[in-house]
# Entry
Amino acid sequence: MPDDRGTVQDAPTVDETLRRMQAKLGGIVPEFELALKAELAFRINRLKRERNAVILGHNYMEPALFHSVPDYVGDSLELSRISTQTSADVIIFCGVQFMAETAKVLNPKKTVLIPAEKAGCSLAEGISVDDVRRLRELYPGAPVVTYVNTYAAVKAESDYCCTSGNSTAVLRHLFNEGHDRVIFLPDEYLARNTAADLEADYVAAPDPLDGADVNAGVVPGRKSVIGWRVRCEVHELFTVQDVERLREQFPDAVILAHPECHPDVMAKVDYKGSTKGMLDYIRNVDAPRYILLTECAMADNVAAEFPHREMVRACNLRCKHMNLITLEQTLSSLENLQYAIELPDDIIERARLPIDRMLAIR
# Structure
């Protein structure tokens, strides 16, 4: 994949940057804000060429950032793949900590920066290395699949990684290899939804782990997904009542939901999938209106990307961690090369295998 960032001289001027942002974000971002953001975007786009840096932007970034400075945008799986192909010396990951760590594992010789030092994740914080090791002891022989929303040290304890876009494919691969039980960490709802997709049993890991009956809920001869007990602090807030209210208000709208939502919510929507899956659906399927049940910045980004689609932006749930990543912070990161991701060599080496296995599964 060739880099297409161009040279310093190719960087658009402030006025050109503003015009591009106005064309893309008019009606979504206030005009006075665009004028302020355009100056920042200009400085970032010029400096990234001087630094030989590439900027990766997750779908949950604020619109003024998402549509102005990233060289590549997408979900965790797409950006992980892209990070392995760039020739840039510096990777700026406009996303949260675990995403930047994944990029570092895949690019140990490159400088990987995250714009905000404290951009964490409730899922990543909810599972530890000790938890994974204890689960291995309780369920010997069961492969461990960790969601990409985990820190590198937890990935290093795993057999496979996955994203919301390929969790079903990864677990199906393991079941087809003859495994009856798979440990799937850490998002409870993603594990339950993936188990349902595969017509497998969902079994909650015991709490506490010590002295537990590990066979509780396991039906001999049936496929089982052993899940953890943490949830995305944004997606768990969407309720069945939300879906019913939206159906009543917008009966002609298609409702799409991320699989980190509660299974009862998923049962009532029209489409469930990763952020990339949602984008592909909106791109390819005609509908009068679309409603996204996911982090709310994405609906604004989709509205800007597909002006011919009518998006119902009825959500006010922003991830407090994603919200820390701003144009101001991205500029500071580039100017000072600050908040570099550093990982021990052994963690990088051990975490690389489950990530590579994930990337190999389509």
